[in-house]
Fold this protein.
Amino acid sequence: MQHKITLIKNANIVNEGKIFNGDILIDGDYIKEVDNSISAKSSDINIIDAEGKYLLPGIIDDQVHFREPGLTQKATIQTESIAAIAGGITSFIEMPNTNPQTTTIEKLNEKFDIASKTSFANYSFMFGGTNDNLDEILKVDPKQVAALKLFLGSSTGNMLVDDPQILEKIFSNTKLLIAVHCEDETTIKTNLERYKKEYGDNIPIKYHPIIRSEEACYLSSSKAIELAKKTGARLHVFHLSTGKETSLFSNKIPLKDKKITAEVCIHHLWFSDEDYEKKGTLIKWNPAVKTSKDRDLLWKALLDDRIDVIATDHAPHTLSEKNNAYTSAPSGGPLVQHALPAMLEMYNKGKINLIKIVEKMCHNPAILFQIEKRGFIREGYFADLVLVDLVSPWTVNKENILYKCKWSPFEGTSFKSRITHTFVNGGLAYNNFKFSEKKYAKQLTFNR
């Protein structure tokens, strides 16, 4: 059977520092041609008129928790990848703290097997480091695995890597990029005990950013960076939440040459501690959403390129779990469906331009993780593409939320922009609230 050829006409193409009106020819999995005007050579070409719409490379989300295996009451790779493509995310990198944890090659391969059968978006996984799995870490193929994930705070089971000697050994020996969650556990435990003495388990949520404090974040981030500099390891610090931490990062060299990089998540750019009163534990994340001053400084560092990537840290829990008392309510929330609409809302408010959104959500994750042939609109690259209508308002509600957990911290929020079409490897995976039954997803590969 001949593969499908699609011609996207009259799009405002946002790519590599420019916005220009043009056409894109997709042939099979790939972008065949990008030009100002391409004419259809045969009658069986599928033509999409994108007049007035903006065409972006597919979003690459470098940090998600899709909860499979073992926590599938919250989410599955299938349910969350469907939500992702509805939000313009065509590729995701999933975290190792599932059940069982992804800390052996066997468990990693099991996850690849699940994704190959059920994912609607392109996929890769991070391998998890522990205090005792260095032998397994050294077996990981860097061409197949996005990175090594280390929890230097806030983890369950044995995934908290808290032995300084082992940490140095891992940093010194792995060729993988090391991605870290940085919060100092000792600081947090001390703060938590103080508030538990006063409130028991019903600590008011407003104290969350004081318990998981600026000090806890900065102490851990600065130690990780110090170790990376000492060992020469390639370090990526996940989800910055404080203004103070932004001083640890530089914009003096291009991303491709940086050894130490940083990411910020949608929730830390959108919410502040003023929102706890209304949203409660629905915006309980680790690291915590902090002050509006922190948020302003995160924006500043994002726009001046000290922060390299925008991600979601999509981490769903059931609503009943989130409604528990403070000490029992888990941290994390679902975000993949609403991340790009939220950033486009910030564009509409004049906070960020479209070129910068594409740089931080498409180009930079591809550069940072050395992802092969994705993240850019280029001839010969995989046709992962997103069409957006910047003037098509909608409101997030129970009926249009696609996450398995069926709630969103954005419920009740109105967005001006919506995703109309998502292409994954040339296949039209999502088209105006309709999903293709065919899966076009592939495993990500890395040019290392």
In short: The longest helix spans residues 214-231. The mean pLDDT is 96. The longest strand covers residues 5-15. Residues 70 and 445 are 26 Å apart (CA to CA).
